[in-house]
Write a structure and sequence with these properties.
There is one protein chain. With about 500 residues, the protein is mainly alpha-helical. It folds into three domains: about 280 residues, no CATH class; about 120 residues, 3-Layer(aba) Sandwich (D-Maltodextrin-Binding Protein, domain 2); about 35 residues, no CATH class. It has 17 helices and four strands. The longest helix is centred in the N-terminal third of the chain and has 37 residues. The two termini are about 50 Å apart.
Length: about 500
């Protein structure tokens, strides 16, 4: 059992190392700006770009819905009279003209010349009137109207929809006339009329229901927050061990009166402090950006304040666990690197892996009440997103929301703590491994020269082989034969033999 004096001495050593690393980080203004101040600029840019994209999509949608002019060629004995009646019908007041064409360019042709207008794309539609069409329309029967479309794509794709909407309105007018002539009231054709008091017809105001908008937006923001939190541990972790190796001060640190675990503990405390500061800067930027955005975005309802506070607390606590895991991960990766450059090259794919894990939460159907909450970097995002989604349910109460998020939050914190401890133990072991710690540059040689092979592959080499195998199996699906008998050996060969050949070569 350790004596209290030894524990106090080890704790003071760890705090001294953490204080030293924090001072070195604060003195580097460029890294300080990138780590802490860059998020304050990132989120407004993302919000502005998203707002511009949404506005452009709405404008494009509205533009496509706007009525436009169409050109119609009519053939048949009643062509001229038909066009005149349609124009008279279009200009009648007090008529619902939704989806009608804004204007119609009528062309009168014979049955022989009308197809030429259509083939040359001078018109959008060809209406071939049957003999006695207008006279039959005044009777009680049904008259068929043949409408020809061009074989090639239309110059204006909505021409058919607009013409159909106009003809349906004309058919409704004829139907009402027949009912009146039969001595029946027009209400026979309209047994139910829907009224929406207080809602203007044709209003274009955009009202966004909060409960449907927040889950989609929060998922993307939480993934970005996870990646930027991981990035906050990037630079201090690189300088923590790899920087010490490059400056030649790692030997001095190792002969200090403290153990490897104390050194690792002090290093990760400094990294964790910077990561938490990055998380705080991100959260502040998100809150301020959301406040500014909500002022210009009318919402349909507001969530209960108790649910909002609970969801915010769950998100912050979950991401504090993510920050701890990110700090331990970055420190473990950089400890195995011999220089700052190698640490940067190694951490870059790690951040990409974190992005992929965090993006799993965006898949439809992902819930936090299962084992997914324990998955690193994905569990924290899923738990936070679920808490935010539950906060939008106005009918729910804070106690009910707490019951549904406390257990997943406990799971993700337990997973983050256990994985962080495991990574730090591995980091302490690597810090005392002379082959990892003091390995120098490879021997000079030719362009294709490589260091001598190890008798036993390292853990990193094994992970590289697995990554190559998974990537090869994914890409081989596009070139594998259609027959299952040949496709399975092809994919197995690419997943097993290709990685082994790459590692042996």
């Amino acid at each position: 059992m350790q004596r209290p004096s030894d524990t106090s001495r080890r704790l003071r050593a760890s705090l001294s190392i953490a204080k030293r690393d924090l001072l070195e980080f604060i003195r580097d203004r460029r890294t300080l700006f990138i780590t802490l101040l860059l998020p304050m600029v990132t989120y407004p840019i993302v919000a502005l770009a998203s707002a511009i994209g949404v506005r452009t999509a709405i404008v494009d949608r509205d533009t496509r819905r706007l009525p436009g002019p169409i050109a119609v060629v009519v053939s048949g004995a009643d062509s001229q009279e038909f066009a005149s009646q349609i124009e008279d019908f279009r200009h009648r007041p007090a008529r619902d003209q939704a989806d009608w064409p804004a204007d119609i360019d009528w062309k009168i042709a014979t049955l022989e010349t009308a197809p030429h207008f259509l083939d040359s794309r001078k018109v959008d539609l060809w209406v071939d009137l049957p003999e006695g069409f207008l006279a039959a329309l005044k009777q009680q029967g049904t008259v068929s109207l043949r409408v020809h479309l061009p074989v090639a794509p239309l110059l204006r794709p909505r021409a058919q929809q607009q013409f159909v909407a106009l003809m349906r309105s004309l058919a409704e007018e004829v139907r009402k006339s027949r009912v009146i002539e039969a001595g029946l009231p027009p209400s026979v054709l309209e047994p139910i009329r829907l009224l929406f008091p207080g809602q203007s017809r044709g209003g274009n105001a955009l009202v966004v229901p909060t409960e449907s908008l927040v889950p989609q937006v929060s998922g993307a923001v939480l993934v970005l927050l996870a990646v930027l939190t991981m990035t906050g541990a990037f630079y201090p972790a690189i300088d923590a061990i790899a920087g010490e190796k490059e400056r030649g001060t790692i030997e001095t640190l190792l002969i200090a009166p403290c153990g490897a675990n104390d050194i690792v503990r002090g290093k990760v405390l400094a990294i964790y402090a910077v990561t938490l500061a990055t998380l705080a800067a991100n959260v502040i930027s998100i809150v301020l950006t959301a406040i500014v955005t909500l002022r210009f975005l009318p919402v349909q309802s507001a969530a209960p304040i108790g649910n909002v506070l609970l969801a915010s607390g769950v998100t912050v606590v979950a991401f504090c666990g993510l920050a701890s895991l990110a700090s331990a991960t970055c420190l473990a990766v950089t400890t195995a690197s011999r220089s700052v450059k190698e640490a940067q090259n190694t951490l870059t794919p790690v951040i990409l892996l974190v992005s992929a894990l965090a993006g799993v939460s965006l898949i439809s159907g992902m819930r936090s009440d299962g084992l997914l909450a324990a998955v690193p970097f994905a569990g924290q995002v899923v738990v936070a997103r679920s808490a935010i989604s539950l906060s939008q349910e106005v009918s729910s109460v804070p106690s009910q929301t707490a019951k549904e998020v406390v257990w997943p939050l406990f799971m993700t914190l337990l997973s983050s703590g256990w994985l962080s401890w495991l990574l730090l133990r591995g980091t302490a072991v690597m810090l005392t491994d002379e082959e990892i710690l003091f390995r120098g540059p490879d021997a000079a040689g030719g362009f294709l020269s490589r260091p001598a092979r190890r008798r036993v592959p390292s853990l990193l080499q094994g992970l590289i082989a697995v990554g190559i195998g998974l990537a090869a199996m994914w890409y081989s699906q596009g070139i594998s034969p259609a027959a299952l008998v040949w496709a399975i050996p092809c994919q197995q060969a690419s997943a097993v033999l290709l990685p082994l050949a790459a590692m042996v070569a």
